[in-house]
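SAMPLE LOG
Freezer: B-3
Tube label: C17
Construct: single chain, 327 aa
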Amino acid sequence: MDYKTVKIQRGSGGWGGPLLITPQPGKDKILSVTGGGISPVAQKIAELTGGVVVDGFKTSVPDDEVLVAVVDCGGTARCGVYPKKNIYTVNLMPVGQSGPLAKYIREDIYVSGVTVKNIFAVDDLEMCTNNGSVASKIEVKEAEKKATQTQKKGNIVEKIGKGIGNVVGIFYSAGREAIESVIKNILPFMAFVSMLIGIILKSGIWDSIAKVIAPYSGSIGGLLVISVIAAIPILSPLLGPGAVIAQVVGVLIGVEIGKGNIPPQYALPALFAINPQVGCDFIPVGLSLGEAEPETVEIGVPAILFSRLITGPIAVLIAYLFSFGLY
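STRUCTURE (predicted):
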């Protein structure tokens, strides 16, 4: 039997790969473990490699004969069962390392989000290209046509079932990623902020800082100085957590305005003067939640912190201008 090699790349939103797969005598089964019969992706792999496609829901195949398993798992156990057995796994759903067997899902053995457009024949003369796309446009169109014909053969019950399954899989995957993000990023940060707020409150630092800052709040010059100090890149991340400093200073300024020691028109610019540090402690976390590259985080954090030195005083001046006529 003349076997050939295929290259399988991740699809839109997918993870893992690319996989280079070549059948061997006795290990040439392409196992389709998807609803609605044999998947077009499994069929395409079999056609290009010369392997034998098998419907996993109808036929049992020994693990040592399975070359690659094609699944449509939304992130539960099935996407990790075959990687655990060291079997190449192609997931039609865009799912990464997920489920109770996530530790077995590796990029060298697993790829997801795959469609027939992501499977390419590889011959000896064209083994390496920039993107691995060695299949012609005609081959892709023919594969899409065959996939459409295969899908049309399924009855209405199968189509409805697959459609519902895809929707459920998408929502399940979104929910899982949200929970993982909360556990890995937000909860540790909240614990850190809680600890920092506790230290600030119990140490009495907040009271000392507030009493020093409050007397400068009676003039526009003093408010500009406060905004610059609060926006200093070294201080702003320390002043930001929980907005403790801003809350305390705001209360003290409010008391002084109520006593008549500070003109009421300074209330609005004072609000902006004590808040340039807002969010400065969250910048690295926000960038990581946005999946920024390490280089972006490295450059972005100091860039935003230094920008507050400019935007902070400007905000105070704008607020001062808008305060005319308010009282």
